[in-house]
Amino acid sequence: MAFLACNSNCLSKVPDSRRWNKNIKEQVLKGNAKKAILTYINMKELGLHADNYTFPPLLQAAADLSSSFTALALHGQTIKTGFCCHLFVQTALLNMYSSLGFIGDAHNVFENMPLKDVVAWNSMLDAYVSSEQMDNATLLFHSMPLKDLSSFNIMISGYANMGRTVSARSIFDQIPTKDTVSWNSMILVHTNAGDMVEAHKLFKELPVKNIITWNTMVRGYVRNELYAEAVDLFEEMRAGNVKPDFLTMTDVLSACAHLGSLERGNKLHIYAKDCRLDSSPHVTTALIVMYAKCGSTLKALEVFYKSQCKDIYCWNAIIAGLGFHGYGYSALKLYDKMRENCIMPDDITFIGLLNACAHAGLVEDGCQLFNSMEKEFGISPKIEHYGCMVDLLSRAKLLDRAFQLIQAMPFEPGESILGALLSACVIHRDLDTGEKLMKLYFARTRQFSDGEFMMFANLYAAFGKWEEANRWRDKMNNSGIAKTTGCSIIEVNGRIHKFLAGESRI
């Protein structure tokens, strides 16, 4: 109410709505959607009238608030004031309904527009693309009387999200004059499709690269598990005096985490400090994950405790990191501290906690946490949580309970869950549960991986049943499946090298 009083004192002397419109727009640009709506209410109470410049930012505010009630009320206001037929207002209505996911309503607004400029056409095109209705987007695109560069870029972006490289390339080749957004979108198409060779080719062809270009490539390498290439590209970026942002650092730290390169990770941490990027919650989380995966839990804890802004992702990262290294009690203590700080856990929190309990042998604590998910927090356990519980019980030699949980869970058990218990049956020499588990395998599929064939063989070998063990090995050989060759990654003189088992040179 103090805000409203301030607005009343400051703006009530202004006879027209221009100052109010400016104030509303500024609030929306600052991300203060609620204040923008309250300013409009205050404006109406003072008897001032809205115009065609008032409603577009207000409709954006309703979209930002994800409030369908506010959206409908404002739509009603545009009709009442007679501005619902104004082109700017209609386009803003279209964008609002699109942001709220009401594509049918957005289409109705679009169809009822007597005059449509290219901005309106692009807004409807973007609505279809954002909702993954690419067939409708394609039809609309080809029916557009006039297209600009944004029209082409929107289509390429849509095809990128669906991995349709041929369709995207067709649109890309039609663009008379391409901008950086066009090239970045096309690179994204190939990174999403897993074709990093073609993505890199486009990257090299692009005459002017911006930070989004570099980030798209770095993230593409990380998502396609080409971690060494991601680190190398980052070094190339630094050599070219291109300043990274928090997204760059987050992805390259993730690459170091997967490579287990602590030395490189340490250097990146120093570089992030020098660039003042280490204060970003995204970078903080990435640093915690990197240090934990590289085995330096003390450094992970140091980063965590020095962080001034700890969001749920930071807490989840440190809990998971401690749990992975067997510090179950420490992970549980941090969970208690997290609750004391009034931070609500999410499903990822419980995956970290259950893994922590599994690695530390804390069966009862794990069971209590699993049962508390739905009872206390309304979080329905997913297949990942059941997988953690099977792992917890298997490690504790409670194989029968683990098998009962698999039978009772409301999901089809995946390979990782069945594999965890079958591996435990081999380790703890439980042929009875192992054979019952094999029946589940047979009911699920008749096509097995090399790892599954080997576990079947090892189960029988553990009990000296060599004939049966050899039968499973012969089945694997006859099926044409070869045992996956192991590989190692090492760092020499700052360079990452990967080699397969049996190779003598790096």
TrEMBL record:
<dbReference type="GO" id="GO:0009451">
    <property type="term" value="P:RNA modification"/>
</dbReference>
<dbReference type="InterPro" id="IPR046960">
    <property type="entry name" value="PPR_At4g14850-like_plant"/>
</dbReference>
<dbReference type="InterPro" id="IPR002885">
    <property type="entry name" value="PPR_rpt"/>
</dbReference>
<dbReference type="InterPro" id="IPR046848">
    <property type="entry name" value="E_motif"/>
</dbReference>
<feature type="repeat" description="PPR">
    <location>
        <begin position="117"/>
        <end position="151"/>
    </location>
</feature>
<dbReference type="InterPro" id="IPR011990">
    <property type="entry name" value="TPR-like_helical_dom_sf"/>
</dbReference>
<feature type="repeat" description="PPR">
    <location>
        <begin position="179"/>
        <end position="209"/>
    </location>
</feature>
<dbReference type="Pfam" id="PF13041">
    <property type="entry name" value="PPR_2"/>
</dbReference>
<feature type="repeat" description="PPR">
    <location>
        <begin position="311"/>
        <end position="345"/>
    </location>
</feature>
<comment type="similarity">
    <text>Belongs to the PPR family. PCMP-H subfamily.</text>
</comment>
<keyword id="KW-0677">Repeat</keyword>
<feature type="repeat" description="PPR">
    <location>
        <begin position="346"/>
        <end position="381"/>
    </location>
</feature>
<dbReference type="Pfam" id="PF20431">
    <property type="entry name" value="E_motif"/>
</dbReference>
<feature type="repeat" description="PPR">
    <location>
        <begin position="210"/>
        <end position="244"/>
    </location>
</feature>
<dbReference type="GO" id="GO:0003723">
    <property type="term" value="F:RNA binding"/>
</dbReference>
<comment type="similarity">
    <text>Belongs to the PPR family. PCMP-E subfamily.</text>
</comment>
<dbReference type="Pfam" id="PF01535">
    <property type="entry name" value="PPR"/>
</dbReference>
<protein>
    <recommendedName>
        <fullName>Pentatricopeptide repeat-containing protein</fullName>
    </recommendedName>
</protein>
